[in-house]
Amino acid sequence: MSARVAVQRYALVGAWIAVIVLFCVLRPDTFATTSNVQNILGSQAVLLVLTLGLLLPLTTGDFDLSIASVLSLSSMVLALLNGEQGWALLPAMGVALAAGLAVGVFNGACVVLLGLDSFIVTLGSGTFVAGVVTWISDSRTVTGLSPQLSEWVINNRILGVSLIFYYGLALVIALWYVLTYTAVGRRLLFVGRGRSVARLSGLRVGPLRWSALAGSAFIAALAGILYAGTTGGADPSSGQSFLLPAFAAAFLGATAVTPGRFNAWGAFIAVYFLVTGITGLQLLGVDNFVQQLFYGGALVLAVALSQIVRRRAAGREAVAA
Amino acid sequence: MPAPHSTTPAAPQGAAGEAPPVIALRHLTKRFGGATALDDVALTIEHGEVHGLLGENGSGKSTLIKVLAGYHAPEPGAELEVNGRPVRLPLAPNQFRELGLCFVHQDLGLIGDLTVLENLRIGELAASRSLRIRWSRERRAARETFERYGFDLDPDAIVNEIPETDRALLAIVRAVEEMRATLAHDERGLLVLDEPTVFLPREGVQRLFALVRDIVARDASVLFVSHDLDEVREITDRVTVLRDGRVHATVVTAEATEAELVELIIGRSLAAFEHTAPERPSGDTTLAVRDLAGRTVDGVGFEAHRGEIVGLTGIIGSGFDEVPYLLFGARPCRAGELVVGGRSHPLPLMTPRDALAARMALLPANRQVDGSVGTLSVAENAMLQVLDRYRPAALRLRRLRSDAAALLDRFDVRPRDPDAEYASLSGGNQQKVLLAKWLQTEPQVLLLHEPTQGVDIGAREQIFTLLRDEAQRGTTIVCASSDHEQLAAVCDRVLVFGRGRIARELTGADVTKTRIAEAALNSSAGTASITTDTEE
Question: N or C: fewer beta carbons within 10 Å in chain B?
Fold first, then answer.
């Protein structure tokens, strides 16, 4: 591996370490503590899971803007069934996942069967689902979730870090495996990079795109369950704030580890790079709006970086040719 | 027959009078690296003339047009006069507009989603500084314009929804209108039509010619670039024939027969160097096509045998180039039946997956879009079809990579680095990777479209050898190509298309570059179409 490739691969890791060192120096008493590390790792695992789901449609060349609404939907369905209707936890979780999956299947149908643009379809279905969530919840925050869920999501810890972090980590490994070590992962990649090539090579382009959209919705629903577990209930609107960070992390992650490809470890690093930066700034006493500055800026920066990398590569080829 | 290298014969009589030529180009030379694309070319286009530009692919026609468009800078020493006034070369981009030149290319340059009116006025609208567009006035003006040219077109129609012929007429009218706006009253412009008739039906060609005659009578001279000798003979006053970058002859169209034109275009000198194809192998029939109909082809049928290499060719627009895609299910097919490996497939229902199941493979002409993903590695591109051999649920990546390396070795791909980015390879090596990708699946039928396009000469020979070896192993190869030399080098038999049908079949000693070129040029004229036996 040439030095330049190595720099490209691990620049984000370096940036993350730099941010950590910076805040350790600035706030040694609050930032550089075990409890803060545990807090950072646990608190944003929901974002990590949501981002991982998003990688699937991004790999096949589709957008999914409905993931945040699906997250809200699944957490709300779970809270209503388990907290208010008195359903047992497992069947309620099953219905929550099924509801999310249904949205993904609908998105896929519009994109594959009707040939619509995924950006528009998921923008519409996301808004529609957000409306449904407000409707079924009567615009209120629903509580009373079984404490068992919170036990299994945040209260139980390994090495002081909530279980939710390990769920996220397990999903990182699973997705990394699928995208790197399976034929399906390769095929998803070809579908995203060259639809025509994929079709002429006999890949099932439609079903693959469809499953990617269904997959992202299913994982978003999973993130919704975890989110309900961390808050002990559900509210109709706060889930929306995950949408932009998930995109920022996915695109930023695509500049690391295997640059140019949406990848699970890159997403993992990106999520925690962003979260570390924000937590540090908050400990410095900066206002809450810094979150938006940070996430929004990171998204644009990530896309700009990947463009620059691509242009450089293209420039080198032009010279070589 | 006029002697080759003859100097410019007399201009057409009549309207021209004493006016200077619209274009007088002399000593035009253009080199690309070591290759000479144009060599001391002279071209004079008189006032009121339709001038044909003929020549095989690679003879320098497009380079000449691109010099006029200011896209290429010629070597020093070239001279250009427009309407008798000397103009300095090279032209700046867009300078052609001020000089009164306009171009309509085969793709027409219209925006399909916009209306006829928006397309017509697009140049003006882009330059206009007024804040408000008065659409009703524009619409009226557009109607008047169309009327002046003698046809009726709804300004509010969406361009994609009007017939192909109307689109071509619209593109020409737009070009001429923009040109008229820049010319003084008594000045003449030049309209360059670059293969404008390729996708038009017969009746459409007649309407287009009527428009061209109208324009020549009033506004401009026309440079008409085409492969279709029938059309060239019908519409042009004089013809300039380019061969290998030189003006081989300029002749008055009415004084040359079709056979003479063909001879001027292809020449005879190459015949001696050509390889003679072996007699047709007499293996079993592996492939039979019946009643194939697509965008242009209609009622085409042919058979191919085990181990046979069949070439498909013709001039642009003859339809030969869509056949591989139709057989593979890659493009919508109106009708047809394909029998391969003893099984019959109705072609309108064919998909690439069905084709793969029937052990067919397709190497498309557009490598970058249809053949490969340039941003992925060579190994990833080469091994896409065989992933299932490597434990798909837990890929043996190391073996996949080493097998890919061995494959690159076998096909002599350079560099032999399976991790290299596909787009960083040269054209020849890219094509070898795609051949490796498909040949390792051991197809029964290999469909090719322009397999050596953008491929350097060394790799070209290697690809020929690979194809011959593959045929030797029993694969049936169907190769659609406009490269006659290549067809002569590899094919056992060549089917020549004209106007959507198979017009000629060349076999044995007839499979030479010259005979193929001749047949292709003649095929558009011939009304008799020989259909090959499909019931043998």
Answer: C
Range of the domain at B96: 23-108+165-267
Q: Are strands B23-32 and B79-82 parallel, antiparallel or unpaired?
A: antiparallel
Kindly tell me if the per-residue pLDDT of A1 is higher than 70. Answer: no
**B257 and B302 share one domain:** no
pLDDT reported for residue B529:
38
How many Cβ atoms from other residues are within 10 Å of residue B144's Cβ? 9
Whole-prediction pTM: 0.80
Q: Can you give the residue range of the structural domain that contains A207?
A: 3-36+48-320
Beta bridge partners of B396: none
**Residue B199 structure tokens:** 């996708």
Chain A positions touching chain B (beta carbons under 8 Å): 180-184, 186-187, 189-190, 193-194, 196-197, 199-202, 204, 260, 310, 313, 316-317, 320-321
Q: Are residues B277 and B171 in the same domain?
A: no
Q: Nearest-CA residue of chain B relative to A321?
A: B426
CATH of the domain at B533: 3.40.50.300
Whether residue B251 is contained in a domain is answered as: yes
pLDDT at residue B96, as a whole number:
87
CATH number at residue A197: 1.10.3470
Residue type present at position B7: T
Instruction: Judge whether residue B333 has pLDDT over 90.
Output: yes
What whole-number distance in Å separates Cα of residue B348 and Cα of residue B332? Answer: 7
ipTM: 0.84
Number of folded domains that form chain A:
1
pLDDT in tens, B377-403: 999 999 999 999 999 888 899 999 999
Of the listed ranges A11-15, A88-92, B209-213, the least confidently predicted one is: A11-15
Displacement of CA A156 from its chain's centroid (Å): 23
